[in-house]
Design a protein that fits this description.
With 263 residues, the protein is mainly α. It is 69% helix and 2% strand. Helix 3 packs across helix 9, helix 4 crosses helix 14 and helix 6 packs antiparallel against helix 7. Pfam families: MPAB_Lcp_cat (PF09995).
Length: 263
């Protein structure tokens, strides 16, 4: 039986690709300049992660009321993220459809990349279903449905062209450094950062990895492949309540927040 995004979206292992998705996003100046000038997520990465994952989980699994609530929250956060073109910037807007398309594309490609490294290749029917479902992440905001590439083949062309053009500038490099080498924040988060940097580097396209200044030797590449194979052996055997804990946690927090709002 064919599966879709709802069948894989709850897998907590997908969060291993969070750093990859963020760095790909900010390497595009349409997104990166807005993040650099309007976001404090490098100082509060867990808040950014919570906001992103709560939105994604609400789109996939939430009620209509929950989706409307997170959509309003995202739009409020996006409202001030805009700047007209000038001598130093081509300008940006968080409501720009091209920018939203790129963000959703990075989330989709990263999720599939991580899932297949851990669980193995998706069959074509399942992969097509997941691809179609992912459009909802963007169209729930301002992305026109027709902008989502019509099928996986069209997406592959779009993705290759976009990634090939990525050249992270000084603003993107600064945000990446602040994110990957945090000076503060929870101690547990800082202890986890060497692993997060390693996974991020291994998952990035080669020229993007180099542009962000990651050192990557053949030995590191072999260690990365061993790590992913090890995850592939261990992770699928974990109880579902552990594998789906992030989804359940964020949706529970959303329900709590909604209850507090209406109290």
């Amino acid at each position: 039986m064919a599966r879709g995004l709802a069948d894989i979206g709850a897998e907590g292992v997908l969060l291993a690709g969070a750093g990859r998705a963020i760095l790909l996003q900010i390497a595009n100046p349409r997104v990166g300049h807005g993040v650099a000038e309007h976001s404090d997520f490098a100082e509060r990465p867990m808040d950014r992660l919570r906001a992103t994952m709560t939105y994604v989980y609400a789109v996939i699994y939430g009620s209509k009321e929950q989706l409307n609530a997170v959509r309003r929250a995202v739009n409020r956060a996006h409202a001030p993220v805009r700047r007209g073109p000038d001598a130093t910037s081509a300008g940006y807007s968080a409501f720009d459809a091209e920018s939203q398309l790129w963000v959703v594309a990075t989330l989709y490609d990263t999720a599939v990349t991580v899932y297949e490294k851990v669980h193995g290749p998706l069959d074509d029917e399942t992969a097509d279903g997941i691809y179609r479902d992912y459009a909802l992440i963007g169209t729930a905001l301002q992305l026109p449905p027709q902008m989502w590439p019509r099928d996986r083949s069209a997406f592959a062309e779009y993705w290759a062209a976009q990634v090939d053009a990525l050249r992270p500038d000084a603003k993107a490099l600064k945000v990446a450094k602040e994110l990957l080498y945090p000076a503060g924040g929870p101690r547990l988060l800082r202890l986890a950062m060497p692993l997060a940097r390693f996974l991020t580097a291994g998952l990035l396209p080669e020229h993007v990895r180099e542009a962000f200044g990651f050192e990557w030797s053949p030995g590191q590449a072999r260690r990365f492949e061993r790590t992913m194979k090890g995850l592939g052996r261990v992770y699928p055997r974990l109880p579902q309540r552990i594998r789906h804990w992030p989804r359940d946690y964020y949706l529970k927090q959303l329900a709590v927040d909604a209850g507090a709002t209406h109290a």
